Amino acid sequence: MEILDVLTDVAKTGRLGPVFSGADWSDVTAALGEPWDIGTMSRKGTWPRLFAYGDLELSVCRCRKVSLICIQTWRDIVELPQPVVGGTGIFPSRLTYADVVSALDKAGCPWQPYPPLTFGDQCSLVATPSGANFTFEIPQGGEPVLNVAGLPGDGHDCSAQTAGRDH
């Protein structure tokens, strides 16, 4: 499987194997093993937390649901969990806007420009089936290069579920 195949599949389905917005954290770790714990995303407590499987970064809410998914593509190589993508899980990066748009079109995945994240030296597009967002850095005098691909959060508010849980 090539990285563009992985990204177009995510754009069409909103999933990367067991990983999707709202996925139960125990299901993700059962399928992929223990991640690297990057740490808390809040100064107020221990949740939400950011975890990583290589360049796949997941924010996990205090209710232990996946609340945000990002695939960092700005590095020279992209490392994703082998159980999900097969092979070594390591892919070359430096995907251009033209590469991504061509792959989405070839896969029959509709997309459109995403103005809220298009400004200055970056541009963005969104795949309409899943809401997957692709944000590109525009180097001085160069072609836009994919910086990050992500899936939107599920928008849940688990504040009502926090009684008795660590925050």
Your description of this structure?
The protein is α+β, with helices and mostly antiparallel strands. The chain has one domain (3-155). The chain has four helices and ten strands, in the order ααβββββαβαββββ. The strands form two sheets. The protein has an eight-stranded antiparallel β-sheet. A two-stranded antiparallel ribbon has the order 5-6. Strand 2 and strand 3 form a beta hairpin. Helix 1 packs across helix 4. The chain starts with a helix and ends in a 16-residue tail after the last strand.
The sequence of SSEs as H and E is HHEEEEEHEHEEEE
**Structure class:** alpha+beta
Number of strands: 10
Main β-sheet, spatial strand arrangement: 1-2-3-4-10-9-8-7
Oligomer state equals: single chain
First-last Cα distance: 39 Å
| Percent range for β-strand residues | 25-35%
Please tell me the overall pLDDT.
88
> Over the alpha carbons, how many angstroms does the gyration radius reach?
16 Å
- Residue ranges: pLDDT <50 for 5 or more in a row? 162-167
How would a crystallographer describe the biggest sheet?
A: 8 strands, antiparallel
What is the helix content? 10-25%
What's the helix count?
4
| Domain module count | 1
What overall geometry do the principal axes of the alpha carbons give?
globular
